[in-house]
Design goal:
57 residues; alpha+beta; two-stranded antiparallel ribbon; 2 helices; globular
Length: 57
């Protein structure tokens, strides 16, 4: 499965980041629609237990 092209690995933070949520032009709308800050609403996502850079997977 391909991921969203706006998701990127941030080495310093040690996690994936969303470019849409960081973009001042789109951030507020995306944050509201994706319920940012309320925790992951995909509890069956196995990646939550193994956070790492998956660019080469």
């Amino acid at each position: 499965m391909r991921r969203c092209p706006d998701i990127f690995w941030d080495e310093e933070a040690g996690r994936y980041m969303c470019g849409l949520m960081l973009n001042p032009e789109t951030a507020e709308q995306v944050k509201r629609s994706q319920h940012a800050g309320q925790g992951c609403y995909a509890p069956l996502n196995s990646w939550r237990e193994d956070i790492r850079n998956r660019d080469d997977d």
